[in-house]
Amino acid sequence: MTYKEEFITFMVRAGVLTFGDFVTKSGRKTPYFINTGNYKTGAQAAQLGDYYAACIQEHLPDGVDCLFGPAYKGIPLAVAAASLYRTYDRDLPYCFNRKEAKDHGEGGSMVGYKPQDGDRVVIVEDVVTAGTAVRESLALFQALGDLKVTALIVSVDRMERGTRDCSTLDELRADHGIAVYPIVTVREVIDTLYNTEVDGKIFIDDAVRSAMEEYLEKYCVKQNA
Fold first, then answer.
1. 176 an active-site residue?
2. Rg of the chain's alpha carbons, rounded to an integer?
3. Catalytic residue chosen out of the listed positions 4, 40, 59, 104
4. Is 102 considered catalytic here?
5. Per annotation, catalytic residue among 29, 102, 218, 222
6. How confident is the model at residue 46 (pLDDT cuts 50, 70, 90)?
7. Torsional sign, CA 84, 86, 91, 92
8. Where would I find the H helices in the chain?
9. Separation between Cα atoms, residue 143 and residue 122, nearest integer Å
10. How far apart are the C-alpha atoms of 153 and 78, rounded to whole Å?
11. Which of 79, 95, 148, 170 has its CA 20 to 30 A from that of 114?
């Protein structure tokens, strides 16, 4: 089983990836939902970090100076992804931002590693919908100095259209010149779980797959043949 397939099963077992009738923040009715707030144990945090680390190692085996987690959900993700040290012997520093700059003590808006001019930064996020937090992060680093945000790592690419005909992640690629790497895509979720048991239960049967395909057809970008 690949790390991608393991990650999909892991999300199901953690209650992070669920299926049913949901409404997204944008008002779209969706047959599946991803809630990374359901990760809640040390064991889950350790495993999650290993999956992020595997994705980073696969796509960015070098050329990374710092991991950044946007407040708030990105903070534990960046810390967990630093398990690159344990698994791949890569001791990368990490940092995150405060929602409001601190005006006492050491001050500033950044916590952890202080990025230096010339650093190549990788943003670690969960699921990007509109890309607002990512764009805010890009503006933050632009104001900090001569820093280059080179890549964005997300857990799942929902493949949904943004403000244009391409996906939000493709908008970020095109508008800001950064590479974007999801651990998995929603298409990979369907392919992995369709008629496949996880702990004795099938989560994507014919009915769920049909609903997901209908959603993809309505809201998501078309894949190249």
1. no
2. 18
3. 104
4. yes
5. 102
6. very high
7. positive
8. 3-13, 42-59, 74-81, 84-88, 132-144, 168-176, 186-193, 206-219
9. 16
10. 10
11. 170
